[in-house]
What does this fold into?
Amino acid sequence: MDIKYTSTKEIKQFQDSLLRKELSYLNEKSPFYKRKFQNEGIDIRKIRTIEDLQYIPFTKKSDLQQYNEDFLCVPKSQLVDYVTTSGTLSDPATYAFTDKDLDRLAYNEKVSFECTGTKRGDLLQLMTTMDKRFVAGLAYFLGIRMLGAGIIRVGNGIPELQWDTIERMKPDTIICVPSFILKLIEYAEANGINYKNSSVKKAVCIGENLRNQDFSLNILGKHIREKWDIGLFSTYASTELGATFCECPYGKGGHHLPELVICEVVDDHDRIVPEGEVGELVITNIGLEGMPLLRFRTSDLVRFHYEPCECGRKTMRISPLLGRKNQMVKFKGTTLYPPSLFDVLEDIPFVSCYQVILRNNLLGTDDIVVRISLKKGESDLPEDVSKAVKDKFRAKVRVAPEVDIVSDELLKAEVYSDKARKAVKLVDERK
It folds into this structure.
């Protein structure tokens, strides 16, 4: 029977047994972890359960950057694909896969797409890149191929090409960043495309939150759904995670794949948080051959949900991302994370594009500057745009950042740069 539909007790026992195998593999094959076990005096034979992981130090992003090749568990001759992590707020780290790892990656995406209801014979349009050392596009392609569905590799951006492809090939599913769906709608409305009656019935979304912590659609999700009544599925993944948390049709959080990754949530004192509380996600890869990670700190703040899902899976589910630990902002006595700032900006009808900039001020505390551009031809602009934007922030998050109004062309060129894999909505200039 599929482990995801068994009891939570059976899932836990299953992961405990996989952990023991993983530790033996790392002790035998990984120069980095073999050295760590020796230096820390860790006897892996005593690590029998997930709870025992607390006796092993964390792996940090800086370890992966500083000792990159020491994480390799196979000769370089066995590596067949190289990517880098996104490097959102730090230098990217190199990550490499063996043939077996690519098969594992395909399996991960196959079961994740199955979770959304995708099946053999469906047709999916990929609106994210397969180049620029980015693993996601390749993973989607491999998983959809294993599933037996069809895929159209259009790549990111270019709404005109996306709509031409939709009208020619009639995909039922698109894979993209959710904010790009609004750009597709905007282009369709400007060019007389009857998007509401197109072949597209579902969007599998990456890179941005679609939901609030109670799983209701957030402002971005509502704006999409109000315009285009298609199924919206959130996913959470990263290169280091080596797995995907994907929503089922009930939309109550991304489902854990226990055969691929062990997850912990820790507080600021490195202790496991009580069930249902927020903390930093820590992951241990299962079954990776090339560069597996043990107790890797992701910096992502999440909470776990353990009640069984209506879809029948008994796996843990992950909440929408609250933010990243190193992106926390202390602004005028208020603690904020960028997603809450994005939500405010998404809810301002005259804002066309935006970018949030974090800076240090002379007092050594954080400052926030919000750069916005205005929608062309907007007839309902307030008399004082900056004041209206600040009032929105005060109403939603109690504090107001500095507002800088710039040209739409200039801001979109920076936010949607060809040099970046994702929309650059956040620039952290803090030291």
